[in-house]
C-alpha cells in the first residue's frame, strides 16, 4: 500500500519535529521535514502531501502568544495553499504549539480562516506543566479517531493550554460534536480538578476537530508515547501497546483509504 506523504512543518523554535517524524515513519507513512520558508519560496508545495503536521515546541519563541507569529505567517503568506489543501481533503494535525497555531489561524474549531473563535490561554496553575495525564476520546466528527472508554496515558508540556471561549462558543463546539479528547480522572470522568486537568480547560477539553473532521488539534503529545519504553511505569502497569500509537495508525490508515 502506498505510504501517505506527510509534511512536517518546521520553523524557528519547533522542537518536537523529530519525534513526530519518527512516529509517522514508524506506523507506515513517508514524512518529510519542510521549513515554512520552503513553502513560502515555492521550492516545496503543500499539494504534494496528504497530511500537514504541525509539531510542538515554541515557534518563534512564543513571542506575543504561543503559536501567534506562525499563525500570522500562515494567514499572510500561505492562505491560498492552505485553502486549496483543505478543499482537496487533505488532513491536518496540530500538536501542542501546532494546536495553538491552528486555533490562532481560525482553522480550529470552525474552519474560519483568519478569525479566532477560541483561545488557548495560560494555565490556571500559572506555570509550565510537564507531566503525564489521562485523557479519553469521545464521539466526535473526527474521521479517524473514534470514541472509546479506554483511558489513554499521555504527556503534556505546555504553559498556555487552557481551552477557553465564551459560553455560546463552547456550546457550539459541544453541539457540533467537535470535542475529540477530554482530560479525565482515575474513573474516566471529565474533570476540572488539577493536576488531572493540567491547565483548567473548559469542559475538560484536551483536543478538538473542525466540522469536516479532517483537522485535529490537541495539547497532549501522542508522539511521545509510541514506544512502550517511553512511558516511565511501563513495567509496573504492564503496558502492552503505547497509548499514542492509535492516532498515527488511524490517521495513516484513513489517508491511505481516502
Order of helices and strands: EHEHEHHEHEEEEHEEEH
The structural domain count equals 1
Q: What general form does the structure show? A: globular
Looking at CATH, the homologous superfamily is Class I glutamine amidotransferase (GATase) domain
- Count of individual beta strands: 11
GO molecular function, one term: glutaminase activity
Protein name: Phosphoribosylformylglycinamidine synthase subunit PurQ
GO biological process, one term: 'de novo' IMP biosynthetic process
Active site: 96, 221, 223
Structural overview:
A nine-stranded mixed beta sheet has the order 2-1-3-4-11-10-9-6-7, sandwiched between helices. A two-stranded antiparallel ribbon has the order 5-8. Helices cover 25% and strands 22% of the residues. With 258 residues, it is an alpha/beta fold. It has a single domain (5-257), classed as 3-Layer(aba) Sandwich (Rossmann fold). It has seven helices and eleven strands. Its main location: cytoplasm. It is found in: Cytoplasm. It comes from Candidatus Curtissbacteria bacterium RIFOXYA1_FULL_41_14. The active site is at 96 (nucleophile), 221, 223.
